[in-house]
Amino acid sequence: MHGLIGKMTAAAGKRDELVAILLEGVHEMPGCLSYVVAHDPKDADAVWITEVWDSEASHKASLQLPAVRAAIARAMPLIAGFGEGATTVPVGGHGLG
Amino acid sequence: MHGLIGKMTAAAGKRDELVAILLEGVHEMPGCLSYVVAHDPKDADAVWITEVWDSEASHKASLQLPAVRAAIARAMPLIAGFGEGATTVPVGGHGLG
């Protein structure tokens, strides 16, 4: 499996709008086993995204999906920056639908 | 919802043993919507855990479950240290069973 953990900072006041875009279509990405969007309670503009894919290839393929490309294009202007993150190799757990 | 992201370092050579303990019973924790254990591909001793609970109370209650307390007691000697982490407020996603 292929995992991603990342923090991004929305443009001021734009977190809700950004989160709404990030959550569009999360159930329709082939190979996506887990995709969680979360607020950072200490930073009103910060968003955490944790992802698990059945393979790195599935994740890369998702970035070519028309709906995902369109969502990224709409999201980018709402993103002020990217923070810490990690690429991981999930080995098991709960909620890996 | 209540989210946790954390990195821990296993004692040298003990990651597999630690991961096996961490994965025990992950399907039997009331209120746990997602619990993913992952290797850090850049550090042979490092483990990432990402969790989503329906509430902070459910997470705290899980730490009192006999099986979880026993697993923590067995895991602690295998943990060399704790790294970066974050507490989050998940707002949606996929795989939140």
Concise overview:
Chain A has three helices and four strands. With 97 residues, chain A is an alpha+beta fold.
Describe the structure.
Chain A is α+β, with helices and mostly antiparallel strands and 97 residues long. Chain A has one domain (2-88): Alpha-Beta Plaits, CATH 3.30.70.100. Chain A contains three helices and four strands; from the N terminus they run βαββααβ. Chain A has a four-stranded antiparallel β-sheet. In chain A, a hairpin with a 2-residue loop joins strand 2 (32-40) and strand 3 (43-53). In chain A, helix 1 (15-23) runs antiparallel to helix 3. The longest helix of chain A is centred in the C-terminal third of the chain and has 10 residues, at 66-75. Chain A is globular and about 35 Å long. The two termini of chain A are 13 Å apart. The mean pLDDT of chain A is 96. The A-B interface holds A 1, 3, 5, 7, 19, 23, 26-27, 29, 32-41, 48, 50, 52, 84, 86-97 and B 1, 3, 5, 7, 19, 23, 26-27, 29, 32-41, 48, 50, 52, 84, 86-97. Strand 4 (79-94) of chain A pairs antiparallel with strand 2 of chain B. Chains A, B: InterPro entries: ABM_dom, Dimeric_a/b-barrel. Chains A, B: It comes from Lysobacter silvisoli.
